[in-house]
């Protein structure tokens, strides 16, 4: 069966965008696909998925950047812009390399929303993507142009989150 590489977007304010992408990765690895995740890191948490390559052949993950600091600033820090561009270049390289069947650019939508990566670069990547590669883009506030260019778009909608009750982030669920 010829593979039709999909452009998949997980967006919205509810929890589950990265988790769903990792679920896809698990499924893909089970089918013998080679998976790479490039993460635009937002904070300093040690995410459980960073240890997944110890247990999952065919899965790799690259946390990049130093976290998006000072989200309240009117302009992003040039160092964060440089790091995000480097992260995007690494992700683009993975997509174009032919070495992977599924590439996840985790939090890319958020990096675009925050002004760290140009939406035109994301649209070019979607255009240049080798046909068989599945590409997953996660993060809040996906741009309408990216949604238009995608094949599969899911919006996570918050109905409840334990954070609202003051329950702190749980290891293995949130990170
Ligand atoms: P996850 O990685 O858990 O799938 P996500 O990718 O959908 O979450 P992000 O915007 O990447 O969401 O946020 C990452 C962290 O913020 C996670 O620990 C997540 O549980 C938490 N989070 C996500 N949505 C909410 C929310 N609506 N309210 C509070 N915290 C949230
Ligand atoms: Mg996420």
Provide a quick synopsis of the model.
The chain is α/β, with parallel strands linked by helices and 175 residues long. The chain has a single domain (8-158), classed as P-loop containing nucleotide triphosphate hydrolases (Rossmann fold). The protein contains 5 helices and 6 strands.
> Number of helical segments?
5
- Structural class based on helices, strands and sheet pairing: alpha/beta
* Tally of domains: 1
Share of residues in helices: 25-40%
CATH class: Alpha Beta
Distance between the first and last residues' Cα: 36 Å
CATH superfamily, please? P-loop containing nucleotide triphosphate hydrolases
Gyration radius, rounded: 16 Å
**CATH fold-type name:** Rossmann fold
Architecture, according to CATH? 3-Layer(aba) Sandwich
Strands side by side in the biggest sheet: 3-2-4-5-1-6
Note poorly predicted spans: none
Strand proportion: 15-25%
């Amino acid at each position: 069966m010829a593979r039709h590489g999909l452009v998949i977007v997980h967006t919205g304010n509810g929890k589950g965008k990265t988790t769903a992408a990792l679920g896809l990765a698990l499924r893909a690895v089970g089918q013998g696909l080679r998976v790479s995740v490039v993460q635009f890191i937002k904070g300093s948490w040690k995410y459980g998925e960073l240890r997944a390559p110890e247990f999952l052949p065919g899965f790799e993950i690259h946390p990049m950047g130093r976290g998006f600091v000072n989200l309240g600033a009117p302009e992003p820090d040039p160092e964060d812009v440089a790091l995000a561009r480097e992260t995007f270049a690494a992700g683009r390289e993975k997509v174009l390399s032919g070495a992977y069947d599924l590439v996840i650019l985790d939090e890319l939508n958020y990096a675009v929303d925050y002004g760290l990566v140009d939406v035109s670069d994301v649209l070019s990547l979607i255009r240049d993507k080798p046909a068989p590669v599945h590409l997953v883009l996660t993060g809040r506030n996906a741009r309408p142009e990216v949604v238009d260019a995608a094949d599969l778009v899911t919006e996570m909608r918050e109905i409840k989150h334990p954070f609202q009750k003051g329950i702190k982030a749980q290891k293995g669920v949130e990170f």
